[in-house]
Fold this protein.
Amino acid sequence: MDISEVRKGSKIMIDGIPYNVEEAEFMKPGKGSAIYRYKLRNLVDGSSTNKTYHSGEKFTGANVNTREGQFLYHDGTHFIFMNTDTFEQYSIEESLLGDKSHFLKEGTIVTTMMLEDKPLDITLPIFVELKVTKSDIATKTDTVTAQMKSATMETGAQIDVPTFIKEGDVIKVDTRTGTYVERVVTKK
Amino acid sequence: MTDDERQRLARLMQNLKRSAFIYQTIRSFFIEQGFLEVDTPIRSPTIAPEKEIIPFETEGWFLCASPELYMKRLLAAGYEKIYQFSHCFRKGERGHFHNPEFTLLEWYRKGVNYEQMMKDTEQLIITISTRLGIGNTLQYQGKSIDLSLPWDRFTVSEAFQKYADWDPTFNPDLRRFDEDTVLKVIPNLNPYRPTFLVDYPAPMASLARLKPSNPRVAERFELFIGGLELANAYSELVNQKEQEMRFRKEIKQIQKVQNRVTPMPEKFLRAIANLPECAGIALGMERLVMLFCDAKTIDEVMPFTIDKA
């Protein structure tokens, strides 16, 4: 597509990497060539960058779409998901997911961003419920302020939790910040 | 009509009223000085060949991108002081300060050069400011702009050496020139004063004559206020041969780089033979109104931009 067709929200390929145009500024001296200033989000690693282009530039649109997937299992190097519409399975390399993998529990529904047929990234639900598998016993008891201690979740995530949380408890975690929200009361 | 549109248009009413007042003030300003208001075609068989101004084509003709050539044909026929508000169309120009359809105020005077155009512009804008009751201090986007005369003048050469560390007069790299103009020069001009950038490098002369005392530059200026490029003016080129040569070069470039066919404006070229020494200017009306309405974007002074049409 010609640069004049690029808009805020367009997804374009630059050097083989898909970018989302987060901000587009059009500037033009009356008699001169148009200058386009973009704030771009790298859709592979999430980094952001500013770039300046001139009129006449051509771009290839990035064929980016999203689909819903359910996390099935981890095979050591890949996370395997099932497309909830077609029931087809697809896998994402562990390295692409980064810390997000620490919040993935069997059955979690995520939104997967695909470049053509290749998964790029996932968006987690904002809150997930995870079981505490290991937790130290709080040692300090000499204060009334909210004490926190480190705990390990069933997915491997390390979360700071209040001292009253015990192994086997289920807690609600905010995946945007990786922090404890509340204890989930489970029916026995 | 949707609630959104009704509310949007209602919000614009103050600005549109102010805009109408500004148009009326400009008309009286020119009429009082003996100018004649003219009206030239919005759709025409030829336009000035300009690589960076992409026209809309309509059944083999063009929508007006500037009334310049017709205005000069009138001057060539003996008209001495003329002005016009002209709807103009330029493809792909959309941004905070751009809409593909916009309005140019152009005026021309016989027997003067671009110096007079600077004086006219100063007087015109001071007059509007005075009649709006604002006086000499214009509030725009949080800054107080001091309009007292005379306004600051820098040559393009001075401004580029100061803000972009190079002199385009001796090294006319057009691409770099455009980029540095918008990214380095304009953002660094004194925000509290109107500024004329004068004497553009000869390759950017367009339809301006070269400066007799320094033919490396053209007698062309642009006016900037509050970061807005407001007007562009020339001591008009009245040499037929030279104008034809510049057009030929531009037409070739347009064909080569953009694969766009631009016919030679023959009737205009013939008229140049009778064109007296004169100067002219084009001023963006929406941007002028933006300044006096403290508007951040052109959308705040136009009821129906391309996205809302």
The longest strand of chain A covers residues 17-27. The mean pLDDT of chain A is 88.
